[in-house]
Amino acid sequence: MLDSRFRGNRLVKHMNFRKPKGTKDILPKDMHKWHYVEKTIREVMSLFNFTEIRTPTFEYTDLFNRGVGSQTDIVGKEMYTFDDKGGDSMTLRPEGTAPVVRAYNENSMGADSPVHKLYYMTNMFRYERPQAGRYREHTQFGAEIIGSDSLTTDVELISLAKEVYNRCGITNFKVKINSIGKPDERKNYVNLLREFLQKHINKLSEDSKKRLEGNTLRILDSKNESDKEITNSAPKILDNLGKESKDRFEKVLSGLTELGINYEVDFRLVRGLDYYTDTTFEFVSEELGAQDAIGGGGRYDGLVELLGGKPSPGVGFGSGIERVIIVAEKNGFKFPEATPPKVYFITLNDEARDKSLSLANDLRKKNISCECDLLARSMKAQMREANKMMAEYVYIIGEEEIQKNKGMLKKMSDGTQEEIEFDLLVNKF
Ligand code: HAM
Question: Domain locations in the chain?
Fold first, then answer.
């Protein structure tokens, strides 16, 4: 909120700018956690041979209308959409799959190679009601395999996500899994479900009543108790799949068992985006409370074609980095701290400060991190600063040291010190 006191056009004091609701500042004190998770994601992606793809922050709105589905909450309620100055409707990306598939089609990537394994790590925008673990701008990493309908791709993605979580100290999550079948099976099931729910319409929550026509499947994952009671006895999608889809699902489950990944089949897991076919999955953690999904995904065998490409199957998942950090911390994971500077130059006059600049330059060229005093403070204050930064050494330069061309190197851990000539300092480490 801006507590502005304008005098004429001049903004006079009390300017308290605040970040937009549902966004966050990631401060230096927390950055090591982000760096660790980001590094881990890149390492694991590379182990599984995924390559990174980056798409624009905003896309033409129609991409999401069509790709994610106009009846979904994301498109219907949550998109940051605006007309640009040329009058085109643009949307800040609310998710990564439709943009990746758009880029895949637009760049004819299918012609280069039959299978692409792609990943991204970037910010997403959804106008949601902010709460713990739910933001209007979140950072998501995701992986997509386009071009193969092999069931190993479903298993590989689940195992990839698990590997990232495990390396972040997260072990107490559940893998929920379901299959929503081929598009025509899904369509028939939606009709069946709608018919069933029509009979109980009076007991449905207001939200679910609204969803009955356009977004029927989502009623299955309603948190409302009365909705849950009704849907408990609703026809189940797995009972309404054809043999091929059922067999495929069974094989995915065996693949997970083979890798020692525990799962729970959950008929309510329909996911909130329209492009899914066959397998859907979610990683949930009790540590997250109401927003319990650390990550989720599934197959989208019709999406490439829906967005104008040659029919190609796909599967992927996405996971919020904020939620990974929340769960990791609740699990007691200690993120490695950033490395402190090796050397802090304590300088006691202008000449010494000049000298420290050139010595720091030499050290940095040799990849040795260091810091110089920036406030011309007293020796005591500089020493305190070096301690606070947890510098491994201080190198003290005063008037006498300048005369002798030597500084005093002190190891902070044990207090031992030795005189070292300026020219020889760089060889010390
Ligand atoms: P999604 O389930 O909508 O799927 O989002 C994936 C993950 O992003 C969620 O499980 C959650 O961790 C995180 N997330 C979503 N919204 C928020 C939010 N408002 N605040 C914080 N974290 C959030 C997708 O977006 C699909 N594109 C995933 C996918 C990829 N499916 C196939 N390929």
Answer: 28-181+241-330, 192-233, 343-428
Cα torsion at 260, 262, 268, 271 (round to 10°)? Answer: -50
Kindly report whether the global pTM for this prediction surpasses the value 0.70: yes
Which residue of 138, 221, 319 sits with most ligand 1 atoms within 8 Å of its CB, as the best mutation to test the pocket? 138
Q: How far apart are CA 326 and CA 60, in angstroms?
A: 33
| Superfamily of the domain at 343-428 | Anticodon-binding domain (3.40.50.800)
pLDDT in tens, 24-67: 999 999 999 999 999 999 999 999 999 999 999 999 999 999 99
228 closest CA partner among 212, 205, 211: 205
Q: Which pair of structure tokens corresponds to residue 285?
A: 């953690």
Q: How many residues does the chain have?
A: 429
Strand 343-347 versus strand 370-372 pairing type: parallel
Q: CATH class for domain 28-181+241-330?
A: alpha beta
Identify which of 140, 173, 221 to mutate to test ligand 1's pocket (most ligand atoms within 8 A of the CB): 140
